């Protein structure tokens, strides 16, 4: 309802909006959660329209949304981040100017400690993905590693929306890894097994996110064969023969990074106890293909007792 109301008001009530906004601002400090939620939702949707920029309301509304980040109500904090993310649609030309402030808000949202269902973190990740293309590269690079490390646990969340949003955001972050390439390469390796296994995720939207993230990671991996495989086989409109694909992926991995064998195996062992049956089945297959394609000398490093017992 807030979206429909704001859309109509943005189109037809432009000249009256400054007074409406002025009269609503005090309710952001109301003792009633319902009033703060309603006003924040209204402002968040209004920021989706360029009319706030035309009427010189953007800075006022942005400051008020930023001020809601410490609100006691989770829903208010979540809606405030949505509003800040909506600036990417309503006033994209102003995102760069306020980039550092917007980025700090999103990072604070991901670090929200009083968010048991991760609603604030989910909104922060979704909104940051919308803002990224409009932010200064230097602002993003200063926070790149912190964000990548912070979102990594969400790749395996029980909530599909958290898996999808965190993986999409990770894919978008890789665009800014130049200049931080070696350090960010570590983050790609840390997430690689998870992204490849979640190509077998039970939720199609998560599979789609993994395809996107792996296509984005490819150019940063320093292996042309692997990059080509991700680009050619992980297109959204193309079905995937998973076993054949993983066989070839492992061949390229062991040709280019044989020293990573143990690390890749240990990460896969973690998924032997996955709640998702297809991922549980994919992990031992992944290990089998890795061992198949590694040199005999390198294979001596593998702890067979650990591998056979499936302990990690």
TrEMBL record:
It holds the Pfam family HEAT_MROH2B_C. InterPro entries: ARM-like, ARM-type_fold, HEAT_Maestro, Maestro_heat-like_prot. Residues 63-309 form the Maestro/Maestro-like HEAT-repeats domain. GO terms for cellular component: cytoplasm. This is MROH1 protein. It comes from Dromas ardeola. The gene is Mroh1_0.
